Amino acid sequence: MAENAKKRSFAGNYIFNLIYQVIALALPLVTTPYLSRVLGADGIGKYSYAQSIVSYFALAAALGTTLYGQRQIARVSSDAEERSKLFWEIFLFRILGAIIATGIYCCTILPIYSASALLYAVAAIEIITVAFDITWFYQGMENFQPIAVATAVGRLLAMAAIFIFVKDKNDLIIYVICYCASLLAGNIFSWKNVRGYLVPVKPSSFKILKHFLPSVALFASQFAIQIYTVLDKTMIGIITRSDFENGYYEQSQKLIKVLIALVTSLGVVVASRVAVLWKEEKKKDVYDMIYGSFRFVFALGLPMAIGAMLVLSRFVPIFYGEGFEPVIPIISILVFMFPVIGCSNVIGIQLLVPTGRENKLTVSVMAGAVVNVLLNVFLIWFFAAKGAALASVIAELAVTAVQLWFVRKEIKVSRVLKIFARYAIFTAIMGAVGLVVSHFAMGGFLGIAVIAIPCVAVYGALLLLTKDPVFAFFKNTKA
Question: What span, in angstroms and rounded, lies between the C-alpha atoms of 429 and 421?
């Protein structure tokens, strides 16, 4: 008998999703200082390039079912039989996609990169993991705890294996095995709790292929997103022919992705709730949530960007080790992604997708993809990895601009800018304090703490003294 799928509170779901996002990205970051010193920038760059190739096929295997599955499950979450039928249909659809994508990969990519066939063959495990990934189901059910636990299990296993088995540059293949195996282990472990949500359904009633066209619509947008999040690495490799440049970019992205996860972690939680509210025609509640999300993005993203820039010169040499100084200017550019990606996440993932307007999301990200590719050709040629970083920021701005145009009759740009201005002023005050303190702070982690503590104190005081509405967002959001 399936459980009644009692939903957690909005704040509880946010916390578990934040844990999931941080674990998925931050635990690998724990191994970054070690891998930087053991594999070097060139070793990391080799896998970064290979992984960028594999990512296209992993995305094709999922074929848009991650967002599609979450939305559809959210809509039938209270109907045990319907959600069970939908779960098995989408799961089998993903298995079929993974088999086809893996077959095409083996027939095309392995012969092209025959000189590094073992690396590319092992990296292909990531395509197979797609079939067993059911995070979309838990997200649709608004239960993020199983995702966080399963991810933690996989990542902790990977960390232990990396520290035990990866000892020098010759262990690159072992590192890739550890990483890919952790993804697979986490996905399989997440199945532990799914039985409680399902009831027996007849396989003869399954209509697997009916999900093809709707998921393709979302796949187009996800593929476009992949263009300017992964193609960067591919183009850096092709244009610069430097494993070092890809290594610098990869290590920069690892840190940036963790921080972006903090800004966007609210996304899937809000998206699941919006899908339900929109179906119930509670549009006012939907727009209130969206404005609240904008407030959260600016309140967190802006100070994070400036704060990161204040401590980078001290942080990078300690964290990444000798030889990774080129990472500093790359990260200094990428930090501007925090508020920008946050905004596109609010409009695209939290509003357009759950309300069935993924075609507009697709148009916006396609615009960003075109901007990114065109700028990459020019900027990577002249500025290598720094050029790719700048192109990514500009592309995200283009995506956000297009999305704002699409929702201009629903979301008032003037109100969004007013919210932005509030936190920009707070951040500027915080930044001024941090800049003054940085002139007197010593080096190392102690110096970072000396800069960070006053910044956090000043920013927090500004929020508290002005009784900032961001604190009321979770409290006022209905469960």
Answer: 12
Tokens 């066209």 sit on residue: 213
Predicted confidence at residue 474, as pLDDT, reads 59
Per-residue model confidence (pLDDT) at position 18? 66
Between CA 428 and CA 437 the distance in angstroms is 14
Decide: 126 and 58 in contact? Cβ < 8 Å. Answer: yes
Instruction: Find all residues with CB under 8 Å of 245, minimum gap 6, and list them.
Output: 45, 236, 384, 385
- pTM exceeds cut of 0.70: yes
Reading the block at residue 131, the tokens are 């079939």
| Residue 463, pLDDT score | 94
The four Cα atoms 283, 284, 287, 291 give a dihedral, to 10 degrees, of -170
Residues 217 and 359 sit within 8 Å (Cβ to Cβ): yes
* Three-class SS state of 133: coil
pLDDT for residue 119: 94
User: Coil, strand, or helix at residue 294?
Assistant: helix
337-344 and 358-406 helices, crossing angle to 10°: 120
Q: What is the pLDDT of residue 1?
A: 43
Show Cβ contacts of residue 374 under 8 Å, excluding neighbours closer than 6 positions: none
The residue among 127, 223, 224 whose CA lies nearest residue 184 is 127
Q: What tokens does 401 get?
A: 């601009």
Specify the 3-state DSSP secondary structure of 222: helix
What pLDDT does 141 receive?
86
d(CA 430, CA 428): 5
Q: Which residues of the chain have pLDDT under 50?
A: 1-6, 478-479
Q: What is the DSSP string of 314-329?
A: HHHHHHH-TT-TTHHH
Dihedral over alpha carbons 95, 99, 105, 110 (to 10 degrees):
120
